[in-house]
Amino acid sequence: MARRYGSQIWRIFLIGSSRNERLLDGLGFFTVLEPLIERWAASVEERVRIAKRHAGYFNANPIMSSYIAGVTANLEERRAGGEAIPPERIDRVKSALSSVLTARADSFFENTLLPLGLTIGCISAINNSYIGLAVFLVLYNAYQFQSRIGGYRIGVELGEGVGGDFVARLFREERFLGGAAAFVAGVFAALASAGAREAGGTRLLIAGAVIAALAVVLKRRRMPVVRRVALLTFGTALYLVAIVYIGRVIR
Amino acid sequence: MNPVLSTALLGGALAVDNRSSLRLLVSQPLCGGLLTGLLLGEPRAGFFAGAILQMLFLGWMNVRGGRAPDLPLGGVTAAALSILARKVPASEAGVPGLILFLAILGALAVAVVGRALYRYGESRSYVLTETALRFIGEGRMRLACGLHLSSLAAHFVAGFAIVGAAVLIGPRIIAGVTEVTPALWSDAMGPLAVLLPFVGAGTLLARNLARIRLFLFLAGFLIVYLMSFFGG
Lengths: 251, 232
Hints:
Chain A is mostly helical. Chain A has helices at about 1-10, 25-40, 45-55, 65-80, 85-125, 130-160, 165-170, 175-220, 225-250.
């Protein structure tokens, strides 16, 4: 497989490198297909025409782009082989797959898998261990490599017809992983609380609970993340200094 | 190797992982902090600073098209500043809580600058796109691909420059601040590392307020908290 698809697969991993406001990942998508275009075109003019079609606007989740590139390669290959597939159909399939797969992949990779892995990593960091970090990297990259390399191969070999099965199989675990992420988040909160109780007793535990409550409120108010984090970090530091001052005044 | 140069090189490499859609996620602060610590000879300290920054952003999702802070550069900066600031003579006696606080602030500033620079580059890269499209029109496909891949170098240079500048001046600034900060303030910030994870815990709770998710969150919380409470 590496020999057959090697020249496309390494490009798939860099599809979003030149992301820009005009074409988004269009140039990256063209770069993935570039080694194949010569095979599909009978003349130089045809080559330029195909290249121009695939260097247009393209916006998709970078991980699932591989499957879309595979399906596009499959359709172009069949078209070059003489099947009556109009270019408009290829463009339609490409854009339909982009919107459907991007929504699913963003939800799976960004909303579920990434927070789960990072929370596991942070739990082990609280315990001064690197194991969680290793688990996070292996977990995320196992899904990523499976989707990118496997997705491209399935797209090239089987075409657009198997898209539903492929997505269903890939995202079957999403509900389970989402539940696991919620449970693990609770574990993280418990360990943070236990650490605060050990370090400073009930006083620090209550302070931690107030910080967490403020984080919930600010998140629900949709305050930008950097502002929220900066505000809470400053607030925490200020609280710690104020408590020491007040303690000294009382004494 | 010079610590500024080595961390700047790491910043450049992690910027490539983050911005190129390679996304092996070694650029997350949790991992970036450890790598920085390894480069500077203090893996535990680097991992700790990176983990604290990661915990502050735990539960945050990068929504498509949203304004994502450049956390990878922030992670390297937080780790490098917290390690190197302690080596500047003026801040040798500084309390870790204060140094951590200042390193986190430096990391946040770097994350904002990194994002601004990336947005600027994204809006200006139409020149590169136009040139690539012209090459495609002329049948020079390889050159168009080369232009696409050349953006990797731009990501590397941006990461290198931002982290390099932050690590060059950051430790001295932290040392200066530590020197003029009253001892009482420095001592007071001792428990900062214990409290900052609550920012992430709160954000995670906010993400899991739906019925079943909240039940699972509370189950995880109660099981582990009670176990730790009763000495399990």
